[in-house]
Amino acid sequence: MASANDSKWQKDAADQNFDYMFKLLIIGNSSVGKTSFLFRYADDSFTSAFVSTVGIDFKVKTVFRQDKRVKLQIWDTAGQERYPTITTAYYRGAMGFLLMYDITNEESFNAVQDWCTQIKTYSWDNAQVVLVGNKCDLEDERVVSTERGKQLADQLGLEFFETSAKENINVKAVFERLVDIICDKMSESLDADPTLVNNTTKSTRLTENPNMNSSGCSC
Amino acid sequence: MSLSGEDMDNPPRRTSSKDSAIVDDEADVFEITDFTTASEWERFIARLEEILHEWKLVNHEPRPPAMKNQYANGTWAEKTEEVIFADFRFMFSYLYLTTTETSSQEISKSKREDQEEVDEEHKTPTVYLDIMNFDNDFPSRAHYLCRWYGLQEFFTLIPVSEKQVIDSESRAKLLLSSASVAFGNSNCSIPVFIQLQQKWRKLFTGTSLVRGGSIEFEMSHLKRLPPQYCHLAGLLDVFKSKLGCVYISMPTVSVAVRFTYKLQDWIESAWPQMPPDFSSFCDGEVGYGDIDFLPFGACTDPISELHLSCTWPCLSEDMIVENSMYSDLDPLQAPQWTVRLQMTEDPQCLLGVFLRDFLKLCERHESTDEVLKKVIGDGDAEKDKAASDISNALHKLTEPVPSLSSIPSISNVMSSASARIKFKPEDAPIPDSLLDKILYFLFPDAKIPRSSTDQKMNKNKQSSSTSTSSLSSPVSEHESDLGEVKANGEKMAELNAELAKQLKSAPVDSLTQRLGLALCKVNHSFGGLLGVAHLWQEFILEMRFRWENKHFLSDIEKGAPNMGSCLLHQKLQMLNCCIECKVKRESVGYGYGPDSVNIHDQSFDSSYDDRDSSARASKVASIVSSSDDDEEFFDADDDEVAKASAQGEKNSEGKTNKGAESGQTDMKGSTEPSEESQGRDSVVSADGQFQDSITHRPVGRLVPMKNVFLLATGEQLYIPVTQEPSPMTEDMLEEHAEVLAKLGTSAEGSQIRARMQSACLVSDMESFKAANPGCILEDFVRWYSPRDYVVDDDVEAEEEVEMEQEQQSAGSDTPATGERKGSVSSPAKRGRLSQRMQIPGNMWVEAWQSAKAVSARRQKRLFDDTKEAEKVLHYLASMKPAEVVLHLMPCVIHAAIIKLVEEAINTCVPNSKSMIDTLISRAAKVTRNFPLDKKKYAELLRLIELAETVTARTTSLRSKFTSDHLASPEQEGKEEEIESFVNNLLTQSEVAVKGGACGPAGAIIHKMFITAQKSNNMILDDEEQDGEGGAAPTPTPTILTLGEDRRNRRKNSNLSLPSPSSESKSTALSDFPAPCAREYILRAMVPRPAPYSKVLPQRMYCLLMESDNRIAGAFTSDTTFQ
């Protein structure tokens, strides 16, 4: 769907006017390229070294899907082992996850299963996940074959992509696919719940999906 | 129409002058006026035609006749338009049976083949086929016009307003002829009906124009029918006379008959449910465990009537006789029996009412205080006391550290707390004894009266009891009682797990859920809003007491708030976190800041003498042991080290306990494992604390990191004790995320965000520095983010081997306990920071530079338990009862669904699976929604109530069909058939009785009618059997007159035919009452209006009821050969 609207994908990301808002989370081990991946997608830029993320950071991008403006609020997380205790708190509100590993790093691939468990534990079960093997431009240093990635994705029931933030391979495709899956799931599960459509509520809300928890003390 | 001409002229003039030439031309054209739609009548007809065109019903193809039972089972559709005739507004509707695409295509295909021979003119119109269709007589559900005339498509023209009624014949004729014109013009043969008289009478007149013929649909609706027509014979006369053919060759009329009998009295199986006694538990007869008992079931029998319809389809008039004297139509001989149930409109379901009452509180706006103040009399001395109490409470709020010595035991506080509430004993909405029971129900751990010395012991017990009680949910207990089918238990367990995962509520049997149930109960039985406010206030007092006295909340799971539970539960979890933190802080003897150290030193002196001494003892012991520890780690071989570090906590526990045997076990036993290690470390730091200012001695070490040495000094690298990140409830998290999000997506925003979140990083760095004197950033990175330390290439290969070994040996790899994978294994390993860590001025370097060597214990607290606890307590205290109710709704719903599922499974409700699934998914959606919406909860309650009603119906019906008196030898082995019959009754609107009166279900129904008949006529069983009134009481005169009355009435009533069985046994009672409704369909193929006319279908439907008699005829006449 999106390929037809390519030009529209470049719309001003800061635009507050949107029909839906999806909150996405990028997770994975430290230095697998989460921040680079996000910058490539949101700003179409690449720097070989971003400062290691502290805590949680985010970017926004608005896309079009079937003439609906979908605002993606993409949260980038720190991958260090110390951080999951902090970042998992944010899982509950996310509608989609990009679970990323580095194809040149065995350890990051081995950790995928654990990350997946974390998602299962801390998110609602209708959150969608895509498995991403990043840095596929570094073919010489590859230690995780595409087949193994595919196999694991099948085993976990996830969609799978190999990407390169540096060479801009599959970056957009991953997000488009994730948005598609979320939309499909949404139209499937919600019979067009009117509360889902957002035009009036303030844009800073993390999510407008009634299925997601949002909060705010009501006193 | 000159007016219209002018109208047409005007608009073009307003257009621009450029077009004026053209406009003028057009204006000329517009001068032609159309006189055909001049009158209202013509406009009405034109509008009808227009609609027919819109709906594509012009030159309508004949439809195939409906298949067997398609009227009842197929789907009907309706199209509606409003039309106006003068000032009359009508709804013009097209109702039709939707045919599935495939079947209609197939049929039309086969038709097309036929058509090659049969030309256009000879196709049988749909309406003819419908009238003579025997497959859809007496459909179980269908539009009444469909039922009366057997049509699969028709139009209705119904006045919109109730006030506008077609009551004169001329108006009816005018409408009918208008419709005829429209339909004739459109070549549409679908019948059209016009409603006459008041709507409730359902009186219609109609017409249909068919090629070469026309059908008149006539109807009469009478309160009473002349007695001579109240039977088949009379109706046949009416039919034949209407056809007007008295000639000899009259073909036989085919007849379909249906009698319906009503069973209202369920003699043998009265509604089995007794309403539970709500007042029982306050009398103390039943244990307080009953507070969480949810009532279930219907107050009145949810099934009010059973309608038995006996059908004789497709008889010939010659075959049966029914007249005023005699009838062949014995229900027991009827070939088809069908049954439908009449449900009680509002059976008053207990659970639904119970929950709805609770939800109603959401509409109240009073605050807790306002509610409670109302009770206190004005100018009462009590009031002043109360006011001072309130101020006391406020003082408490602001008191930084509560003094513990003044509160000796929880039981004391409970009584003093209730004294604090401003009630005179007689005014209190919840009597004291009951309140105690409820509080014990909420806080089962409070049962054991405790003194300050054995508090710790109790807490120990409490935490263990928590774990066990959370395992055994009330449901599973309940089930073991029922213990009928083990599979049910499994099903329940599965569903419970599913519920716990799906619903955003609180775990089963958690404090939160119990609170919800208790408040529900209090609302229902003890004072409504006032009782709720009272209990809530008690609850808040208890919360404060527990915080101040460091008692954990029982049955609230430990750990950071679970975002998958409801907000109130998270708040309680948060409070528990605060208490845990406080306990840790104080048990260790040192606060994180200098202030708290002082305060706690004081408190130690005053109230914890024994503990203080033990702590001192342990201090000494572990100073010795800590150095031992270190050496052990150094010397031991790999395996042992791995073990030791993995079990480091255990080791230390053992040691400290050894060192401080007196009283120490009590203290230590209760604390968490992580606490243990901290405890040990506190001692280390305590040691270091004294010399900190002089030389930088390592402090706050947790465990050495295996084979990793500081780059600068070559010393062993230690993983420091770190502060836990602060737990957050979802509202805090949301607030935090909102603040982060507001910073925008710019680079600056990112940087500010990073800085805001750097507290944890800086804290960890400070701890690291404190634990590792002489360390550099590279050392920190090797522990904290190993991939950011790049080892030089020449040693990499060698290292990888070791890495693998390490991975195998390392038991656990969390930063707190284990070694790091991929860390360099020899002190001489050379490497550098990764590119991103070398970016000048980056966050990490900056933080490292600013970090001082301060152990976690002496750092500023990341988590201020005092502040957070007060926030939670304030949050709770400021909740209005209405908010409390709404916040507890998810928990109550959760419990209700469990109850419902349990009942539904136990009673084997048909289709319970889908019912429950819908309920759960709906509940998941509603409970996850925030802010909480009481309307959505009300909808959810309606759904629960519906499910409850269905369950109650099942219970009722099953008991009716399986009660003992019905059991007989013939029934044996037929249980399955009866079971499936009952299930069908519950899921379908009308169910055929297999085998009619002779089938197992039929026999039961027959018996039911017999019993009901007997009791209605007050005949006792013996009376009938004996025949003489010896033992049985002789019928009193009243009974006699009653009976006579009845018989007389029957004779008089034009409806009541003497049924055949009563005919034969004149005095004896018939098995069945007089039918409540009798339906006849008479059909014949007769030429009309003249003997030489075409032979055409004729039909008459008759419905005879007590005071509602209807005859609906469809009479076709040939318009060609008249």
UniProtKB/TrEMBL annotation, chain A:
Q: Which family does it belong to?
A: Belongs to the small GTPase superfamily. Rab family.
Q: Which Gene3D superfamilies match?
A: P-loop containing nucleotide triphosphate hydrolases
What is the protein's species of origin? Aplysia californica
As given in the record, the signal peptide range reads none
Q: Which protein is depicted?
A: Rab3
Q: Which PROSITE patterns match?
A: RAB (PS51419), RAS (PS51421), RHO (PS51420)
Under the heading SUPFAM superfamilies, the entry gives: P-loop containing nucleoside triphosphate hydrolases (SSF52540)
Could you provide one GO biological process annotation from this protein's UniProt record? protein transport
Which gene does this sequence derive from? LOC100533330
Q: Which NCBIfam families match?
A: small_GTP
Q: Which UniProt keywords apply?
A: GTP-binding, Lipoprotein, Methylation, Nucleotide-binding, Prenylation, Protein transport, Transport
Q: Name one GO molecular function term.
A: GTP binding
From TrEMBL, chain B:
Query: Which parts of this chain are annotated as the region Disordered?
Result: 1-22, 451-484, 639-686, 796-832, 1022-1070
Q: Which domain of life is it from?
A: Eukaryota
Instruction: Report the subcellular localization.
Output: Cytoplasm; Endoplasmic reticulum; Golgi apparatus, cis-Golgi network
Recite the UniProt keywords alphabetically.
Answer: Cytoplasm, Endoplasmic reticulum, Golgi apparatus, GTPase activation
Q: Does the keyword Cell division apply?
A: no
List compositional bias (Acidic residues) regions by residue number: 796-805
* Presence of the UniProt keyword Ribosomal protein in the record: no
Q: Which residues form the Rab3GAP catalytic subunit conserved domain?
A: 697-876
Q: Where is the Rab3GAP catalytic subunit C-terminal domain?
A: 888-1024, 1058-1121
Bias kind Polar residues: ranges: 662-672
Q: Where is the composition biased (Low complexity)?
A: 463-475, 1031-1042, 1053-1066
Q: Which family does it belong to?
A: Belongs to the Rab3-GAP catalytic subunit family.
> What is the name of the protein in this document?
Rab3 GTPase-activating protein catalytic subunit
Q: Which organism is it from?
A: Aplysia californica (California sea hare)
